[in-house]
Amino acid sequence: MTDVTIEPEDDRPVKPALLRGWRRRCPACGEGALLKGYLKVRDACPACGEALHHQRADDGPAYVTILIVGHLMAPLIGWAFVEFRPDPLVLSGIFATGCVALSLYLLPRIKGMFVALQWAKRMHGFGAGSDV
Q: Transmembrane ranges (predicted)?
């Protein structure tokens, strides 16, 4: 029987990467901006040069944003209706505005977290020696 040692790749801690992604910063260094514009991920970090073009965050951030906003706002709508009995037009206007505002706030942050998770777990070409 032979002793085979497999050396793990350098550990990339997930929690700091996710926090950097939430702040829309490079998951590797935390200094450079992750996004250019509202949702466009940069090809590389302007501070450390980490390649970011590997990311595959397609529709995931939108689905998670909808899930979070729906789970936060639906109980609030029910509570506001029962507690205050506002006119339906007022209720829908207020909560529609709240849903849009919360979605616009969360979407780029969740996308940053998706890219950071992919980087930390070495997914989609973020692994060492990958040139894809």
A: 62-82, 88-107
